[in-house]
Amino acid sequence: MFRKIPTYLFAIIFLFGIITGCSTEKNTLVTRSFHNLTSHYNIFFNGTESYKKGLRRAREAYVDDYTQILPLFTYDDEGIAQSIAPEMDRAIQKSSKVITLHSITAKPEYKNGPQTEKQKTFYARNEFNKWVDENYLIMGKAYLFRHEYHLAIETFKFIITEYYYEDIIYETQMWLARAYNEIGEYKESEKILNQLTTSEKFPAKLHADLYATIADLYMKQEDYESAINPLANALDLVRKKETRIRYAFILGQLNQQVGNMEDASKYYGQVIKMNPPYEMSFNARINRASVFVEGAAKSREIKSELNKMLKDEKNKEYKDQIYYALGNIFYREGNIEEAIEYYKLSSASSVSNIQQKTKSCLTRKGWLSLTVSLPE
């Protein structure tokens, strides 16, 4: 996290301001130092903090729907986009201020004579304040979180065009692909992601995010099988525990969706071992029971775990799901009569969960009539 500028540096910056008149029309070492310092430690810091505050609020407000495959990124929720609009608007405002007040586009003077390659690269730049491109990127991300996708796309494109010589273009291209994913421009996203995956210059620190973006592209097209490998790669590389838990859970769901029950059970087990928040832990245990196959887990252990969950007061309102999961295990073992009894208990325990009650009733009725097979 950036630190506020030390007091003694304020004095130096103030002196620079007096000497230079705070002009961005002159490009000297002094003016570049002045505008780099003030844009970084003052306005950019505040804009970045506002952006981060919005992200924290979005994470805290987002509620996962465990009846669906969870999204990799949670910025597509319209209600949350509206709730964090003040923070994102402030981030955009602060970024615009840095660009307006501190952008240096004037070329510096140089003496005649041959130039080194490093000097040629320096003088060819379109911008001489190293924080301006960062502010454009914050602005683009803020637009995306505001669901102003076309403004986000135009901002990302501008960065790629104007700052092609900076390493920031790789992260920008990745965010451009994410924006295209949000508006359904999958071909454009795929084109960008293919370029990034083959680029030798793509920063190693962004590989996890890149793989997750590729997985997101496939998931939005409901190509769940193709999403598995890139998301598994992302899980191998990501270090943040909260993100690892989410990726592992989604990998369980994706494998379950395409019928890879053993792999699904493995990933749900990984989630449980990482000690996730209670609701995710509960759903991981329920889902692991639902994908039980010989060799993926021991039936006796799973039944014992589910029976313990039935006795836990915290699971009082979730008993319908637990009974249903037990029914699924007995079904997979070929004990249809026992399975039907648990589906009956599930239906009787459903009070507020109408979806689960309907599911339990239909499953039980189907097996009683021997005409409907158990849904996954």
Strands, helices and their partners?
Layout: H1 7-20, H2 29-61, H3 78-83, H4 85-102, H5 117-123, H6 132-145, H7 149-162, H8 168-182, H9 186-198, H10 207-220, H11 224-237, H12 241-258, H13 261-273, H14 278-290, H15 299-311, H16 319-332, H17 336-349, H18 354-369
Helix pairs in contact: 1-2, 2-4, 2-6, 4-6, 6-7, 6-8, 7-8, 8-9, 8-10, 9-10, 10-11, 11-12, 12-13, 13-14, 14-15, 14-16, 15-16, 16-17, 17-18
Unreliable segments (pLDDT under 50, ≥5 consecutive)?
1-5, 7-15, 27-37, 364-376
Approximate shape: elongated
| First-last Cα distance | 45 Å
Number of DSSP strand runs: 0
Major sheet: size, sense and barrel closure? none
Strand content: under 5%
In short:
The chain is mostly helical and 376 residues long. The protein is built from 18 helices and no strands.
Description:
Helices cover 70% and strands 0% of the residues. It has 376 residues and is an all-alpha fold. Among the domains are: 146 residues, no CATH class; 76 residues. Helix 10 packs antiparallel against helix 11 and helix 11 runs antiparallel to helix 12. The longest helix is centred in the first third of the chain and has 33 residues. The chain is elongated. The two termini are 45 Å apart.
